[in-house]
Write a structure and sequence with these properties.
Blueprint lengths: L2 H14 L1 H9 L18 H24 L4 E3 L1 H4 L3 H7 L8 H20 L7 E5 L6 E4 H25 L3
Parallel strand pairs: 1-2
Antiparallel strand pairs: 2-3
Helix pairs in contact: 1-7, 2-6, 2-7, 3-6, 3-7
């Protein structure tokens, strides 16, 4: 197997493992623990989890667009006009339970992995990406999958830091 194929396989496996890794990071926490934070102006564990699930759901459209129409333009302009804290409030992150977000996250990951495993060259497919205020670029499905592997890793580190700060 060549280096690129091995890299694709490794990153796709990491992507598939995301829901399990997130659930491990949340293991042993009760509902009130989900409202712990590092500081008054940072997100709670609950907000982080909703953000992870919603981010995956939003970017799933980019992946599916790239798989079906590489000439299409994908844009998050509607999303980038608000701050992450504003989206957290708009989508009621602070007061919602995690069950539906975790289910969505698991289902989206299973679905995308299944699709990618059945489309030859799927990770190399791409789409034009409109970056508000910046030059349009072309991003591959691999770029998006790898971005979400890193995104999850960073947020699990945040969850672990909150747990550690509160002895959880």
């Amino acid at each position: 197997m060549n280096n690129q194929a091995e890299t694709f396989k490794t990153v796709l496996a990491q992507y598939a493992d995301g829901p399990m890794l997130l659930e491990q990071a949340l293991s042993g926490l009760n509902d009130s623990d989900l409202d712990l934070t590092l500081s008054e102006d940072s997100w709670t564990i609950r907000q982080i989890v909703h953000h992870i699930a919603d981010g995956d759901d939003i970017w799933k459209i980019c992946i599916k667009t790239a798989l079906g129409n590489s000439d299409a333009l994908f844009s998050l302009q509607w999303y980038t006009v608000k701050s992450q804290m504003e989206w957290s409030a708009s989508w009621a992150y602070p007061c919602r339970g995690l069950a539906s977000s975790l289910e969505l996250y698991r289902a989206n990951r299973r679905h995308i992995v299944d699709v990618l495993e059945h489309i030859p060259g799927a990770l190399e497919k791409s789409v034009r990406f409109d970056r508000p205020g910046r030059e349009e670029i072309r991003i591959t499905v691999f770029d998006v999958v790898e971005l979400h592997v890193r995104h999850l890793t960073e947020h699990i580190e945040s969850i672990n830091a909150i747990r550690q700060a509160h002895g959880k």
